[in-house]
Amino acid sequence: MDTALKDSNKGTAKPVNLSDLAPEELAAELSPYGLPAYRIRQIGKWLSAGASFSEMTDLPLKLRQELAEKYSDGALKIAGKLVSAIDGTVKYLIDTGDGNIVESVLMKYKYGYSACVSTQAGCKMGCTFCASAHAGFGRDLTAGEIAGQIRVMNRDAGVNVGHVVMMGIGEPLDNYDNVVAFMRQAHDPEGLNISYRKMSLSTCGLIPGIEKLMKEDLPVTLSVSLHSPFQEERARMMPVANKYKLDKLLEICNIYSLETGRRITYEYAMISGTNDTEAHAKELVRLLGGTLCHVNLIPVNPVDGTGYRRAARERIGEFRETLEKGGLAATVRRAMGRDIEAACGQLRRKALEAKT
Ligand code: SAH
Q: Which residue CA neighbors atom 1 of ligand 1 most closely?
C-alpha cells in the first residue's frame, strides 16, 4: 500500500465521502479539477468496486494524493468474518472507520448471491426479540456505507451480488434519505447494477416512511415485520407499534400493494408459546385474507437474555397449513448460517461488549 495515502479514510473527519455520490454528483463535485470525462468515470468505477484511493493505480499519483487530502473514498474494512460450515453463508463484521461496527451477510442461493445489509449502526426501535436493540444506537449509515458493504463482500468473496435485503442492523425507514439514495446507487448499471425488483426493504412499520416510499416509484419489495396479529401483544414485542398501530399499518400496506401492484411480504418470527398458536394463525387469516401479500415464517433466532425459544418445527408446519387453508401464501424461511449466529446484531453486540 502507498503509505502517503494510507490514512485517507479516517472516520468521518472529511466532510465528503465520494462513495456516497451518484454519478452526476461525482462529476459536479470533481468539476474544479477540470478532469476529462473518462477520468471521472474511472474514479466512479473504482469507487463502486470499493477501492481506496491508494488502489486507484491507473490515476496519476498526484491526483490520488489531492483527492485523498480532501475526500474520503468510503472504502470499508472487514473487522471480522465467520464462514458457515453448513451452507457457506459468510457473516462479516464491518468497521466504518469511526469506531462503529455493522454486520453484513453474504448468502448463496440457487439463483445467485444475496447480501443482507445494515442501514444503521445500531437501532432505536427496541424490539424485544432482536439483538440489535440491546447494543444501542451509533448513527445512521450513509448511502455509500450501505452500498460499501456489498462492495466489500463482492471483493472479498470474488462474487457479484445480485440480490439485496435490508434486513441487517437498523431500521431502513428511520434513515430514509440515505436508504433511498443507496437503492438508486445500487441500481446504477455502471455500479453495482442490482435491479430494483431484487431489492427488499424491511421495516418494523414506520407508516410515514411507507407512505413516502410509495411515491418514489421504486419497484422494490416491501417487507413488513408483523410478528403478531394482535395490537397489544405486538406493542409489547415491538414498542414502535404503540405509535403506529396495527390496523393503520395494515391499511397503508394494503394501499401500498394496490398502488404499486406488488405484494407485501409479512415477516413473522415464530416464538414458542408466544405468537405461534392456532388463534394467532386464524387471526392472521382474518386480517390478511384477500390482500396481495405473502407471509414469511421465520423460526426465531434465540438471543441471549430474551428468554424466547424457537417454535417447534411441527408447530411452524401446522401454523403454515392454517394460513394456507385460509388462502394466504406462506413460506418458512430457511435458516442460513445457523452455526455462525446469522441473527441480526448478535455478533456486533459481542464485538462491542468485548471492546468495553
Ligand atoms: N428494522 C427492520 C429491518 C431489520 S430486522 C425490521 O424491523 O424489519 C430484519 C428482520 O429480522 C425483521 O423482520 C426482524 O423483526 C427480524 N428479527 C429480528 N430479530 C430476530 C430474531 N432474533 N429472530 C428472527 N427474526 C428476527
A: 171
